[in-house]
Amino acid sequence: MRSDQIVADEAGESRAQVQRYIRLTELIPEILAMVDNGQIKFNPAVELSYLAKEEQRDFYRRWTTPKLRRHYRKLSGSKS
């Protein structure tokens, strides 16, 4: 049996979900921290994990500009 399947069975998750959790280890620390504090949701974070590290750093630099954050909040209807 595959190790991801063993973990999935023990955790009550699907193997695909375990693989998505593992994918998050490919994120740069700054983006992972954003996932941990709820600024970026899980599934978009998994997608970001497929970017090269430099592309992730570029995303992070752009994301942390106040203008972009305001625009995202407006689109998502978030008050934070």
Short description:
With 80 residues, the protein is mostly helical. The protein is built from 6 helices and no strands.
Describe this structure in words.
With 80 residues, the chain is an all-alpha fold. The protein has helices at residues 3-11, 15-23, 29-36, 42-48, 53-63, 66-76. The longest helix has 11 residues, at 53-63. The relative contact order is 0.10. The model has no long low-confidence stretch (mean pLDDT 89).
Which stretches are poorly predicted, pLDDT < 50 over at least 5 residues? Answer: none
| Beta strands, count | 0
| Main sheet overview | none
- SS class: mainly alpha
Mean pLDDT: 89
Taking the alpha carbons of the first and last residues, their distance comes to 44 Å
DSSP strand content: under 5%
For this entry, what is the oligomeric state of its chains? single chain
Round the Cα radius of gyration to an integer and report it.
Answer: 15 Å
Number of helices: 6
Q: Bin the helical content.
A: 55-70%
Pattern of helices and strands: HHHHHH
Shape: elongated
